[in-house]
Amino acid sequence: MKLLLKNREMLLVVAIIALLVLIAVRFPPFVAPGNLANVYNDTSILIILALGQMAVILTRCIDLSMAANLALSGMAAAMLNAAFPGLPVPLIILVAVALGAALGSINGLLVWKLDIPPIVVTLGTLTIYRGLIFLLSGGAWINAHQMSDAFKALPRATLLGFPLLSWLSLVIIAIMVVVMRRTPLGRAFFALGGNPHAAVYTGIDVGRTRFLAYCLSGTLAGLSGYLWVSRYAVAYVDIAAGFELDIIAACVIGGVSIAGGIGSVGGAVLGALFLGVIKNALPVINISPFAQMAISGMVIIIAVAVNARAEKRKGRVILRKAEAAHG
Amino acid sequence: MKILKTLLVTAAISVAMMATAQAETKKIALVVKALGIGFFEAANKGAQEAAKELGDVEVIYTGPTTTTAEGQIEVINSLIAQKVDAIAVSANDTNALVPALKKAMDRGIKVISWDSGVAPEGRLMHLNPSSNPLIGNMIIKLAADNLPEGGDVAVLSATATSTNQNVWIEEMNKVLGNYKGINVVATVYGDDLADKSYRETQGLIQSHPNLKAIIAPTSVGIVAAAQAVTDAGKIGQINVTGLGLPSEMAGHVKSGASKSFAIWNPIDLGYSATMIANDLIGGAEAKPGAELKMGRMGTVKLDDKNEGAMADPFVYDASNVEEFAKIF
Q1: A302 to chain B nearest CA, in Å?
Q2: B124, B270: one domain
């Protein structure tokens, strides 16, 4: 199974390279190293969010409220900065992350303690969080000149030639690799998604694990909230509207199974990058905006189709293994 | 001789009428969507200016505390009881205010709407801040004014299906020939999303190295484009312009990413609404083709729906954006 996942990731790498070649034919400057670094930087936030979503999807749940969580945490960070420009930026980030985690834990508690289907819970909180932004801000915008320079500068500051935003996403990827592969929690995500009943017998608390998955996705959404608001230097009610679908699409393209239990950090990152390349390339290769939407949609469907086939094969492999064991 | 006599008599009568009218102050109510909104406070400033200029007019600035039609109906009913001479309203609902406003008109009160209109049966005329042809012309003019030698410009719109933006871009293309040397090289769509608009701007910068200006007739787009130009280090090379709000654009004008942009001027709007109301009280008739007086803003010509456009969108630049940023 590991080999298969590896193959799948290789497949994505090949797909991304093929995509880049296709784009290069129409617009060669796109594949210049400097521009590719920009594309990665632009995709950083999506990568961070996709990793949080992956953890949730692995446990057979879904988090539709991530973009709304991002927007609420981002608005809170921006308002805090506008009201107290002297507040150190790390403290503001901490507040955004803590708020994100708290919002995520609300999702987690509802799924855990009240046993409401995750899609219903997060659809509800999505609307509630968006509504809260309106209540918090009164519908007003926080604009570039209201934010302090330090607040806007952090993701743009460069270290070894790359923006801090890119570095931050690399750090998050590294942390997630360790969490998924080397901690009981990471293994619990996979075990629970693979077979919840079996997971119970191995001593995994299903509800609690799901709760923690939501806390993780909420924390990452809170962090992304600050990053988003400072990157685009504006906060208003509708920021990142509809972005939850991009996050889920990145996971699906990256081979994270919606049915739970299957997925990898590498896959989610590559899925996000694949979408990021498309998003950045479409404006420069001169395609009608209507075709753009169709293309994005087609890519997702193709990815899901490939995914479904991959899962089918997995079933056969297990059977064969079982047969071999019996024989 | 007979003609002269008639003229003299008419003049005498009108002088007499004016004298009686001047005897008592005319009360014009400026009803806004809600009190405490910067935009409307600014409109009131303009209305007070008009009152001062006219001398015999008292402006009653009022409105509900929240933006509801119910609140406005209450306000209108109390204005009817106060026997005001005219009501100029920016409506929270196109249709809900009609019965109350009809009642006002039945009692001889002149009713007009401005900014946000009411259905035709509920008012004598509606004053739009501007018109589609004027906006279309203004957005290309803003870009062209900073490009005396011409150059490539691109449009960053909202969604490909948004009606307002499409009409403005269409009107812009109609007058493009008047601006020599200005080439519109691309029209892209940021979907009124900050991230997509930002990315589309990056795409424009990449695919059009000679780009001199980006026109964004949408408030989300213009802010995102200005930020993208700033981050790309293209301030001074690419001028971001279009339609935006002073409070949202102040920082980008200061940084130089945007030399100027346009939107309605609420002060002028309040001023003009008051002037028109005064003109109607003075006997002017609001009918298709009629021209109503707006003091220093000139006249407004009514179309077949009794609507008129006040003026070109007002241009904001480094000289005035700070002042207006406090208002809206």
Answers
A1: 23
A2: yes
Q: Specify if B323 maps to a domain.
A: no
Pair (B138, B259) in one structural domain: yes
Element (H, E) at A55: helix A33-58
- Same structural domain for residues B171 and B72? no
- How many CB atoms lie under 10 A from the CB of residue A115? 9
> Are B58 and B103 contained in the same domain?
yes
Cβ contact B147:B211 at 8 Å: no
Provide φ and ψ at A304, rounded to 5°: -65, -40
Residue B318 within a domain: no
Q: Are residues B124 and B24 in the same domain?
A: yes
Domain count, chain B: 2
Q: How far is B321 from chain A (nearest CA, A)?
A: 12
Residues of A near B (Cβ–Cβ under 8 Å) read: 27, 29-30, 35, 38, 42, 141, 143-146, 156, 228, 232-234, 236, 238-243, 279-280, 282-284, 286, 288-290
What CATH number has the domain bearing residue B74? Answer: 3.40.50.2300
The answer on B165 and B114 residing in a single domain is: no
Sequence-ordered list of residues with C-beta below 8 angstroms from that of A283, at least 6 positions apart, any chain: B188, B199, B200, B202, B203, B204, B207
Q: Measure the N-to-C terminal CA separation of chain B; round to a whole number of Å.
A: 58
ipTM field: 0.80
At B77-134, the pLDDT tens digits run 999 999 999 999 998 888 899 999 999 999 999 999 998 889 999 999 999 888 889 9
CB burial of residue B147 (10 Å; 0-12, 13-18, 19+): middle
Query: What tokens does B231 get?
Result: 């981050």
CATH number for the domain spanning A68: value is 1.10.3470
Burial of B306 per CB tally in 10 Å (0-12, 13-18, 19+): middle
Count, residues in chain B: 328
Which residue of A42, A234, A288 is in closest CB contact with B199? Answer: A42
In chain B, residues 218-277 whose CB comes closer than 8 Å to chain A: 220, 223-224, 226-227, 231, 247-252, 254
Q: Which domain holds residue A57?
A: 2-326
Chain A environment of B227 (Cβ under 8 Å):
144, 232-234
**B250–A283 C-beta distance less than 8 A:** no
Q: Which domain holds residue B101?
A: 2-130+266-311
What residue type is assigned to position A297 of the chain? G
How many CB atoms within 10 Å of residue A157?
Answer: 11
Number of domains in chain A: 1
For residue B153, pLDDT beyond 80: yes
pLDDT band at residue A284, thresholds of 50, 70 and 90?
A: confident
